[in-house]
Amino acid sequence: MALHHDEIPIDADLAASVIRLERPEWAEFPLVRAGGGTDNVMFRLGDELLVRMPRTPGRVGSLRKEREWMPRLAPRLPVRIPEPVHAGAPSDRYPLEWSVYRWIEGAPPASDTVDDWARFGADLAEFVRDLHGTELMGAVRSGELSWYRGGSLREPVSWVEPAFAASRALVGDVLDVDRLERWWRDALVLPDSPAPHVWLHGDLRPGNLLARDGRLCAVIDFGALSVGAPDAEHAALWDLPSAARRGYWDAIDLDESTWLRARGWAIAVAVSGIPYYRETFPEFVAECVARLEAILADGEH
Description:
Layout: H1 12-22, E1 31-36, E2 40-45, E3 49-54, H2 60-73, E4 84-88, E5 98-102, H3 117-133, H4 157-171, H5 177-188, E6 198-200, E7 209-212, E8 215-219, E9 226-228, H6 242-252, H7 256-276, H8 282-298
Antiparallel strand pairs: 1-2, 2-3, 3-5, 4-5, 6-9, 7-8
Helix pairs in contact: 3-6, 4-7, 5-7, 7-8
């Protein structure tokens, strides 16, 4: 099922045809669907490669960012990140750019892949600290590097506010949406972050983290790579078990205002995802509900 109104249908036959066209030496490699996020459909190609094909024209810029910045950021980070190996061109078979990356072994963090959640949280904090501490190398918050999550929490109010009403109708029987909205509004009145702009991954949800031997081994999908304020970067912590959050907070030492703004972002993104994906991506809606349940369980602190 399509997730977006302007989505291009993508299947293994289409992926195989564009690979044959541009890289015939890879044409005989096994091609297996490797899942798909909200932006791309992915296929594992042989043992060593991953193909990513944007679902819509608006997602192409994300691949360009990765091809430009991943080689420059990789040496400065403590775990592996995507390594582009081929830039696919538009064709009459598929009208958008696409990319091939080096395959990274690992699995999303879960009870069977992580044995010490506090340590995993500390691993993630180390990655965030190193990414945020990396020099911008001339990059500024503009164009493709100005994603909304690096700005003020007040900027997306126009579409977050109606999402509360929609979510209240959809999941109000299982979530205290009134309390969540109150916490979000409390965060809105805080001053914007005084921190200097930094590199942001933009979407550190568990599906973009890989674990191996119980530890964080890679961070993938830098489609939301941007430059901006660091608050929203911490929002995905509520997608992890509470022990991971404690390990992260102990390692990165967030001040109270940053923590509250991060919680506001976590609420805003999850509440907005529920009505948007309620019919097209129920698994993602379940993630949003689980995040909000975790926020409520944590309470005020």
